[in-house]
Amino acid sequence: MKALLRWRWTPWVALALAAAFPMFASVLDAQYLVRVGGIIGLFMLLGLGLNFTLGYAGLFDLGFIAFYAIGAYTTAIAMRAGVPAPLALGISVIVAVAFRALLGLTILRLRGDYLAVVTMGFGEIARLTINNLDSLTNGPKGLQLAPWRPLSFVSADPNTQYYLLILGAVALGCIASNRLEDSRVGRAWIAIREDEIAARLSGIPVRHYKLLAFTLSAAFAGLAGGLFAQWEQFVTPESFVFWESILVVSIVVLGGMGSIPGVLVGALVLVGFPPIMQWKLSSEWINYRYFFFGLILVLVTLFRPQGILPSSRREAELTS
Amino acid sequence: MTPKTAAAAGRVLLEVKDLAQHFGGLKAVDQVNLTIHEGEIVSVIGPNGAGKTTFFNVLTGVYPGTRGQILFNGQELRGMAGHDIVAVGVARTFQNIRLFSHMTALENVMVGRHTRTSQFLLGPLLRTNNFKIEEKAVETIAKDLLEFVGLKSLGNELAKNLPYGAQRKLEIARALASEPKLLILDEPTAGMNPTESQDLVALVRKVRERGVTVLLIEHQMRVVMDISDRVFVFDYGVKIAEGKPKEVVANARVIEAYLGKEGAS
Predict the structure, then answer these.
(1) Cα dihedral: B245, B246, B252, B256 (round 10)
(2) ipTM of this complex prediction, to 2 decimal places
(3) Class of CATH domain B1-89+213-265
(4) Which of A55, A88, A135, B183 is a plausible cystine mate for A257, CB 3.0–4.6 Å?
(5) What is the residue extent of each domain of chain B?
């Protein structure tokens, strides 16, 4: 297992398998799973995003889904105003990052539980605002978007198109996370997570780096939200409830805080499990999904408190 | 002893004037005046609760200080953020070891290079040439420092898995990575047996040979007598004596602070 994780081609093999997955799915007559795969991919993006805040910098955030919502609504509003789809995604990222930076500037003095509670509050405020700001968001009725079909040269099926687009975004997200983690910036974040005072007195401007991690997280959420809106062609406040924030936190914690493969596996397990169960067994099983979700959390907490795939540190060449 | 004469000739590195740190009515540090010269090894001693660690915390920006001045190379440190104090050349270790437990020993030292390096987001993301060069240099310097403190073979171990004595040395290596002019050690030999203490004394001397001035809190009198050019004695937040180690231990006020009035008579 460890050797497999260390093997340098493992990520590329996984990527190739994931890219070929829609073909397998059509052979198995299970196109439904391509859609599930796309949703898992969106949550991988969210997990990778939250991993900066929670995994690297160690800041608890229970309102992360608000930035997914901001991304989704920004894309919806922009596209309805006639902005081309790719540009709308870019705007989503910028708007989500801007909101996140403003929030971070005001609340990052808080620590631990206090920060978690305030972010939770922000998540709810964001959802209620979207729900009530009829002039901009059309309230609970939601917003409809014109279809955008990316990658139509690859497949005629919209689900496959978005699956592949999201997969590409996840791959880029992993590369970016990995490169930052293994750099001066990533070391600074992890140092802050490990011991804030020692980090400051080792010369790290702690508040700046916290704000940076906190803000970067939103870039991933904004992108995921934009893709979600374009794929669904419809956004409503119901998609962005508190439960979804908990789900993203669970993905990061369960997978292994600060571990990129961990986040991917966490999303695969937690988001993929219920629909696959529903597909394989009778549809009534879906009623038990929270039961299984809880069971998985309890089992992992009991037997692997460090997460399914905990982060491992890079080993340096010491002989020379 | 040649170091003493060398020290006496050194330039003033740190000048503390009327420094105080009060917590409500408690005067944890009060009216402290002292001067440290370049190239010295200076110890701060005193009974438990004398304000030694608080004094170090004010020097390094953990506490803001209530009054007074801290002039480092003529520059006022009071009011500066902790990370900026590191940047001007003051680094420290902690009484209760504070390593980055889940990072390797080497990475701990690499973190210490933070203020001497500059790569930010784009360099790492695009893996630019400058980034690679800087990263390589950071790693080389960190390895050299691990070798300097005698931990090179343990570079890939997580800090939390290192033996106690090695953790203390790793903290020193991390502090040295920021190229300090003044290194502040808070009880570097706490919890060590005599052999380990000896080892650490030798390391502190080696640090001085690198041109780093050392200020330390120390409880083991044998270490203090052995290593210090000068000693400051604190009691109830106030500096009650200073001088060469031998002078200080003969000082009536110092004996009183440690042993009470009868001990002094």
Answers:
(1) 50
(2) 0.92
(3) alpha beta
(4) A55
(5) 1-89+213-265, 92-179
